[in-house]
What we know:
Layout: H1 2-12, H2 16-20, H3 28-42, H4 50-71, H5 73-87, H6 101-121, E1 127-135, H7 138-141, E2 159-172, E3 177-188, E4 191-205, E5 208-217, E6 223-233, E7 236-247, E8 250-262, E9 267-275, E10 280-288, E11 292-301, E12 306-314, E13 322-330, E14 333-343, E15 348-358, E16 361-370, E17 373-382, H8 387-459, E18 463-472, E19 485-488, H9 490-495, E20 502-504, E21 525-532, E22 535-542, E23 547-549, E24 560-562
Parallel strand pairs: 1-17, 22-24
Antiparallel strand pairs: 1-2, 2-3, 3-4, 4-5, 5-6, 6-7, 7-8, 8-9, 9-10, 10-11, 11-12, 12-13, 13-14, 14-15, 15-16, 16-17, 18-19, 18-21, 20-23, 21-22
Amino acid sequence: xxxxxxxxxxxxxxxxxxxxxxxxxxxxxxxxxxxxxxxxxxxxxxxxxxxxxxxxxxxxxxxxxxxxxxxxxxxxxxxxxxxxxxxxxxxxxxxxxxxxxxxxxxxxxxxxxxxxxxxxxxxxxxxxxxxxxxxxxxxxxxxxxxxxxxxxxxxxxxxxxxxxxxxxxxxxxxxxxxxxxxxxxxxxxxxxxxxxxxxxxxxxxxxxxxxxxxxxxxxxxxxxxxxxxxxxxxxxxxxxxxxxxxxxxxxxxxxxxxxxxxxxxxxxxxxxxxxxxxxxxxxxxxxxxxxxxxxxxxxxxxxxxxxxxxxxxxxxxxxxxxxxxxxxxxxxxxxxxxxxxxxxxxxxxxxxxxxxxxxxxxxxxxxxxxxxxxxxxxxxxxxxxxxxxxxxxxxxxxxxxxxxxxxxxxxxxxxxxxxxxxxxxxxxxxxxxxxxxxxxxxxxxxxxxxxxxxxxxxxxxxxxxxxxxxxxxxxxxxxxxxxxxxxxxxxxxxxxxxxxxxxxxxxxxxxxxxxxxxxxxxxxxxxxxxxxxxxxxxxxxxxxxxxxxxxxxxxxxxxxxxx
Length: 563
């Protein structure tokens, strides 16, 4: 599939150097000479037939566009680095033209980021979470000596005891203002509630922003809050927040402040202070590298104080597999967690975590993240530390994943890849047909010029191209079922002959006028049979090899394969 994508890129990025048949180091004089020659060949006014006139106009415009880009130093530098796609990025017209390639690349990346930001501003950013809590303690606690059998049969009783649903969207108001609307619904053991929040954020400068929040709910009552963010230095930032909750018990103010600093390229240090119903002071250290993620945190507060350490190892594989473990201990007890995460499709990530705690018991948490939606399934197995529960919590999700991966995920992804490949083949076939039609049109336009060139060359026993083929050739040792894929390029090459010489650059011959790619993605070569001074010559040249003829070494009696 990668090859197909590369082929599409080639179709959308025609080689201007190959079209003009000049070197990448060509001077302005060389560009101008090639441009004038092709303009004389393809000028629409030279043709009276309406169809030939239309085809000549199309080719004339392509040559003119190529010359416009390559004759301008600034556009040429952009084209050399990024191709035609780089020229289509908005904003180059305001960039200073005397830039180095490194500066041009940096400017291109900046313009790309700005374009992506504009795209993001043009649409909402929906995010959602669905959490379904499952109580499966009857699977293991029924075997405890103190367990009392409930009437109703011998099957374990499994129920959904809690659920939480939240959703949020963003709506840009101006270039600096964004409105966010969020809401949530929760239920636990038959009791539930919900709330809705409205937030307006304003970007005040490149260093900071502020937002105002208003909310209402059926449990705690209305709330209002203010939050600000500010970059203090290039390596340090500060976030401050205050809020006021109008609860049935009266006003409940709260306040928090957090500062963070880059300790090195991969390490961040955080210090947070909270005042209110859950007052606490928290400090943490986070180190994130290409292969691992480490967090160490300490919190002192009322009613919870704890020490936590987590470590995550990132495998450098295609599925972005990660394994993680954590230990958290405090006034509430101790919790040990371990699990794994893996990418199962282009937009989906699946993870499973086993939580073992005192006095919490054993819980397995299944999480599926697809695009901006998250689905959580915490399954509580037992309130006690039972080895059997730990074993099944560890092995069960692994076996289920392996079965689903083999029976569902692999067949689905293979079907998706085959479908994409088929679409790429159809797209490539369409592009090849289009290029073939353009090449045939160019050959028709060359006929009159080629006739005059041959007459001039014959009068001085100069260079005559007798036969020329381009594409994939089949050798005598190839398999019988393999077929050659070549096209006749005698006319296009004869049209390039000037003063009994034919000079081709090291660029792919596919972009030459009258050429097209007959075998996309396969190795190609050029085979010529020509006559010079009444002597037959023959040569085979690789696709991206520079070629200059005539040469004495190309004589039939001293045939050379130069690849």
